[in-house]
Design goal:
This protein is α/β, with parallel strands linked by helices. It has helices at 16-25, 27-33, 49-56, 74-84, 104-109, 134-150, 167-172, 182-192, 216-236; strands at 3-9, 36-43, 63-68, 89-92, 117-121, 128-130, 163-166, 197-201, 203-205.
Amino acid sequence: MKLSLVIPCYNEADSIAQMHEQLTAIRAELEQRGPYELVFVDDGSTDATYELLTNAFATWEHVRIARHDRNRGLGVALRTGFANAVGEVIVVTDSDGTYPFTTIPGLLDKLTADVDIVTSSAYHPQGGVDGVPAYRITLSKGASLLYRLLVDWRIHTWTAMYRAYRREVVEQVPTTDEGYLVMSELLVGAIFAGYRVAEYPAILRVRRYGQSKAKIWKIIRSHLRFQAGIIWRKLTTPGRRTRRV
């Protein structure tokens, strides 16, 4: 198995050191599992993100840094990352370490032969939240609850970025959103296409470095529009089935 780690970054100068430290901690284990690469996407950062990434990973093999000339949003950054990744399995993770990089091996262990996507799940009964503001958790849980009602009740968390995909999924499931909605768009589209999903119970931690770029009310509106589209799709496409492990 060749693995690609895709890590979008936008003004993450304060996070690079801890990212390097955590990835170094699992470097030997990743090497034991087979070939791997790091694919960073600098989404038009205006701070020293690009320079710090370049310096921090200068001695690592198979590191690629794609760079946007301006900030284009998470959805575009992910598609750039996928286009630059060559792995059979692609792990996407937050650059700020809200889900620790050291849990990547555990995430990969859940990608068994009968699973196409493993998604981290803070809202799984065995997951949890540490220090994240209550209002953000309430809004995120509310969005996930609606997706559970509309798509698949058995999946607890629908908004997490931290996931592992088989390459076929990101090649066959189209996405169009430029922002944070892309994560739900990709998961919903994959389930409707019949791909099999497993959850990885995880602890979502408050960001320790830098500042969040999320614009909460804009994200909420995008989820509501997308969920309305799901309702319309279900009403106009009878007999659709979904699968999940």
